[in-house]
Structure formats: structure tokens, C-alpha cells
């Protein structure tokens, strides 16, 4: 039996590897979709001795199949935004407490006690639809911050600016988490000089603005908010864990999450560090769905395990992983 507490108490690389291999064997046995994928690759637990031997399930399967490693009752279904006419990803959650443990302990790992912060959320594109895992997380962070000023903002940017300035005047630690286009809207209307507020972008123009590179985005936000760093959050519907960047677009994962890259021409081959490739994620918190996911992102992993997201695959295809009809 895999202990959920053990997932969030990983202390070494050896512990991570042992847990990953245990979860692989569990999901091979209990996840029909993942088992079928492994069978097509002729990958059996008897042959999987190291992380590099583990198959990574293409993320598109969350759009076409129920990716589950348990028969427990589904408590919540998280969905991706998607574009008009496209299929959306569905992450079926059978244990919301597991998700809550992951994001709460992940936030504390990087930023400390949530109760120290007022949490202000500027996430209009996410609020406008149902099923967002980000909204679920941020709503819980707002509640657990226990500050009356914490809350969501939609189009009331003037109220938000006033709240930020009032909190600054009190010297209150504040987290402003927002989608990129909304944060840009903010700094085009108001100018700040913030000393106690952490600005965190979650990415995505979502068709609201012309896409710009992260460096340009961060420079505009740093200038507008009067801060030295723009923080970023890296997560997705199909994961239960998040990585964070405290600036410069370099992300760090919590101890129960690891990023690897695969060859862009051979999706089944992992690459050495410092080379750009397709991003593979090991998320040990994804115990009840699939822990080993081949995403549609392109990235680079560095010597210290930190990583950078560089872009996306053209047409969001993962070449070499079309072994099962999607």
C-alpha cells in the first residue's frame, strides 16, 4: 500500500526513485489505459528498474479516455480550457484531500505559511468557466489565508489597485496571482511601487492579447508593478502538483515532482540535461490517475534539477507516441 503521507515527505533522490517505481507498479496493475500503453511498448514491471525505463503517457489521453488507477468514487472533475471545437482534458479526481495536500505543502515549501499572506486573485479567464483546478487551488488559498482582504477580482481593477495600495501602506505581505493578459491590463491603467507584494503570473493570453515572450512580459510587469522579480506558477489540469519560479523563468519543483526531457524526434528516449526537449513530468501526487506524463511543452532541465519552459510542440502533437488511437 502506497502511503500518501510518504509522497510529501521525500527526503532524497533515492526515496523519490523508490516511490516512483512503486507507483509505476501500482498504476501498471490498476490503470487500464496506462497498462495498455505500456503493453504496446513491451514495458513490463520486471524490466523497469530505473526511472529512465518508465513509459510516460502522452497527455492527450486525458482528452479521450478516463485515466484512472482506482475504482473509488470521483469527487471532482477538473477540465482544461481548450479552444472552440477542440476536445478538453478531463482529470477525474477521487481524492481531493490529496490535491489539497499537494498544493498547500508545495506553497509552504517555496513561500512559507499561507496565513502570512493576503491572497489577491486576478484570473478572469479561469473564473468564467467551470472545472478549473487553478481556481479550486486559489480559492482554498484565499480561504486559508484568513485575511478579510483576500479574494477574487474580475473586471474591478480600480478596487484591486486600491486594495493593493492599502495593503502596501500597512506593510502587509501580499500575493497577487494573475493570468498574464489581466496583469498587463492592470499595469496599463495603474502604476505601482511595491515592496510587500509578490506578483505571480500563471501564463496564458488565452486569445485576449498577442502572445509575447516571457522576458518581455516580465519586463513590462516589473516596470508597471515596480518590483524586481515576477514569479510564475507551472501547473496543468492533468497534474496535482505545481512548480514555481521566483524570477527569470527558471522553475523549481517540490520534492515529490520531477521534470525530465525527451528527444523531440524519439519520444521514448529521455535526454541528458541542458538539452531542449519535450517535457515529461513525474508527479507522485497523481497517484490515482497517472504519475508519468509526456506533456506538449518544450523545455530544458539544468544541472540542479531546475527547469525552463521554452514553448510548445507545433500543432500540440507528440511525435512517436501515436501507438494507441486517440
Task: Note the main sheet.
Answer: 12 strands, mixed
Quick check: average pLDDT? 91
Number of helices: 10
- Overall strand count: 14
Residue windows where pLDDT falls under 50 for at least 5 positions = 316-326
- Separation, N- and C-terminal Cα atoms: 31 Å
Strand content: 15-25%
Structural class: alpha/beta
* Cα-based radius of gyration, to the nearest Å: 20 Å
User: What would the principal axes of the Cα set say about the shape?
Assistant: globular
Helix content: 25-40%
Order of helix and strand elements from N to C terminus = HHHEHEEHEHHEHEHEHEEEEEEE
What does it look like?
- With 326 residues, the chain is an alpha/beta fold.
- It is 32% helix and 21% strand.
- It contains ten helices and 14 strands.
- Strands 1, 4, 5, 6, 7, 8, 9, 10, 11, 12, 13 and 14 form a twelve-stranded mixed β-sheet that branches. A two-stranded antiparallel ribbon has the order 2-3.
- Helix 2 (13-30) crosses helix 3 and helix 9 packs parallel to helix 10 (214-225).
- The chain starts with a helix and ends in a 14-residue tail after the last strand.
Q: How would you concisely characterize the structure shown here?
A:
This protein is an alpha/beta fold and 326 residues long.
Outline the secondary-structure elements.
Elements: H1 4-7, H2 13-30, H3 32-40, E1 57-58, H4 61-64, E2 76-79, E3 90-93, H5 96-111, E4 118-122, H6 124-127, H7 133-145, E5 151-153, H8 157-170, E6 174-178, H9 180-189, E7 197-201, H10 214-225, E8 231-234, E9 243-245, E10 250-252, E11 257-262, E12 277-283, E13 292-301, E14 307-312
Amino acid at each position: 500500500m502506497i502511503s500518501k503521507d510518504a509522497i510529501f515527505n521525500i527526503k532524497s533522490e533515492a526515496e523519490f526513485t523508490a516511490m516512483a517505481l512503486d507507483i509505476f507498479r501500482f498504476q501498471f496493475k490498476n490503470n487500464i489505459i496506462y497498462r495498455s500503453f505500456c503493453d504496446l511498448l513491451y514495458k513490463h514491471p520486471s524490466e523497469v528498474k530505473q526511472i529512465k525505463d518508465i513509459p510516460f503517457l502522452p497527455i492527450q489521453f486525458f482528452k479521450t479516455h478516463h485515466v484512472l488507477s482506482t475504482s473509488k468514487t470521483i469527487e471532482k472533475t477538473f477540465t482544461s480550457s481548450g479552444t472552440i471545437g477542440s476536445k478538453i482534458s478531463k482529470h477525474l479526481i477521487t481524492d481531493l484531500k490529496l490535491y489539497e495536500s499537494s498544493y498547500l505543502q508545495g506553497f509552504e515549501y517555496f513561500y512559507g505559511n499561507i496565513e502570512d499572506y493576503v491572497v489577491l486573485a486576478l484570473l478572469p479567464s479561469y473564473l468564467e468557466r467551470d472545472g478549473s483546478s487553478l481556481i479550486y487551488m486559489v480559492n482554498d488559498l484565499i480561504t486559508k489565508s484568513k485575511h478579510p482582504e483576500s479574494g477574487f477580482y474580475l473586471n474591478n481593477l480600480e478596487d484591486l489597485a486600491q486594495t493593493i495600495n492599502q495593503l502596501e501602506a500597512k506593510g502587509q505581505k501580499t500575493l497577487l496571482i494573475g493570468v498574464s493578459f489581466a496583469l498587463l491590463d492592470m499595469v496599463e491603467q495603474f502604476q505601482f511601487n511595491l515592496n510587500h507584494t509578490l506578483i505571480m503570473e500563471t501564463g496564458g493570453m488565452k486569445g485576449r492579447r498577442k502572445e509575447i515572450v516571457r522576458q518581455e512580459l516580465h519586463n513590462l510587469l516589473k516596470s508597471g508593478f515596480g518590483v524586481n522579480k515576477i514569479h510564475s506558477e507551472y501547473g496543468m489540469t492533468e497534474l496535482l502538483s505545481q512548480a514555481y519560479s521566483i524570477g527569470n523563468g527558471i522553475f523549481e519543483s517540490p520534492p515529490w515532482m520531477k521534470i525530465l526531457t525527451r528527444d523531440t524526434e524519439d519520444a521514448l528516449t529521455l535526454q541528458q540535461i541542458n538539452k531542449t526537449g519535450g517535457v515529461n513530468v513525474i508527479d507522485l501526487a497523481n497517484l490515482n490517475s497517472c504519475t508519468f506524463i509526456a506533456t506538449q511543452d518544450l523545455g530544458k532541465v539544468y544541472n540542479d534539477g531546475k527547469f525552463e519552459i521554452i514553448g510548445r510542440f507545433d500543432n500540440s502533437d507528440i511525435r512517436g507516441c501515436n501507438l494507441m488511437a486517440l
